[in-house]
Design a protein that fits this description.
The protein is an alpha+beta fold. The protein has a single domain, classed as Pnp Oxidase, Chain A, CATH 2.30.110.10. Helix content is 39%, strand content 25%. It has a 7-stranded antiparallel sheet with strand order 2-1-5-6-7-4-3, sandwiched between helices. Helix 1 crosses helix 2 and helix 1 packs parallel to helix 5. The longest helix is centred in the N-terminal third of the chain and has 21 residues.
């Protein structure tokens, strides 16, 4: 089934989020709020303005301390898919290093998806298919990919129920 076309407001929000000021806003304002709000509301309320966002809870790779990160996601066949874009920064996001070291995670997400999951990085073949699905959800991922060209490949993480 093809994705629903974005309405004008959604297109404007997506364009803002993909811009450098929008990236800053989501990393420095929305994420700290959602880090607390999503677990309190079982994933039902966030500052994502209509986009599907979950809160990923994972033990830190070095510290072992619990870390929470709000992330855009898509449910693909019962698995939750996320993009480790870091808004196009040169290095992988910390949460990606954490799930590689500690793949058993907890998720707070809407639609009865809250629970324990196992994380893995998508294979190269899977990534091609899932990348298209994620860009359909949020076209800004293409902007982030342009920012990382020649620096790193943006990983896609797949969560399966534990």
């Amino acid at each position: 089934m093809p994705p629903r076309p974005m309405n004008p407001v959604e297109r404007a929000l997506a364009a803002f989020a993909a811009s450098r000021p929008g990236s800053w806003f989501y990393l420095n304002v929305a994420n700290p709020v959602d880090r607390r709000l999503l677990p309190l509301t079982n994933g039902r309320i966030s500052l994502s303005l209509g986009q599907p966002v979950l809160c990923l809870e994972v033990a830190g790779a070095k510290s072992g301390e619990i870390r929470r990160t709000p992330l855009l996601f898509k449910d693909v066949g019962g698995e939750l898919v996320m993009v480790a874009s870091a808004t196009g920064r040169p290095k992988h996001p910390a949460w990606y290093h954490n799930v590689c070291a500690n793949p058993r995670v907890k998720v707070y997400a809407p639609g009865g998806r809250t629970g324990d999951y196992m994380a893995r990085t998508a294979s190269a073949e899977e990534r091609k298919r899932l990348w298209s699905a994620m860009v359909d959800l949020y076209p800004g991922f293409e902007v982030y990919e342009e920012r990382t060209t020649g620096i790193r490949e943006i990983p896609i993480v797949v969560l399966s129920r534990a």
